[in-house]
Amino acid sequence: MKFYYVYILKCADDSLYVGITSDIERRVLEHNGGKYPEAYTHSRRPVELVFCQDFTDPNQAIEFEKKIKKWSRAKKQALIDEKYDELQSLAECRNATHYKYNLKNEEEKE
């Protein structure tokens, strides 16, 4: 059975990089070896693997990677730290305009 891995690397500059691969060991070695000079991680080496989730369905892996790439750093860090109970609260919009819009819509439904 083939596996696909969605992973998060912590870079030397403390930034986080999200990626997907079918061979996690090889891919981390490529990141640290600087195989692709144009890659985000090239100038931010060394990198450390801080999260990895395996999937058997490549489409699920791709969707998960796309999802977490959009997450805030705080939400990614909660995932890394296995603080799953914090993920929902970190997903809530903190934008006052967005909050007012959603509140207005909820009031109109009543």
Automatic annotation (TrEMBL):
Domain (GIY-YIG) ranges: 2-78
The name of this protein is: GIY-YIG nuclease family protein
Q: Which PROSITE patterns match?
A: GIY_YIG (PS50164)
Q: Which Gene3D superfamilies match?
A: GIY-YIG endonuclease
InterPro entries referenced in this protein's UniProt entry, alphabetically: GIY-YIG_endonuc (IPR000305), GIY-YIG_endonuc_sf (IPR035901), UPF0213_domain (IPR050190)
Q: Which family does it belong to?
A: Belongs to the UPF0213 family.
Its source organism is: Flavobacterium flavipallidum
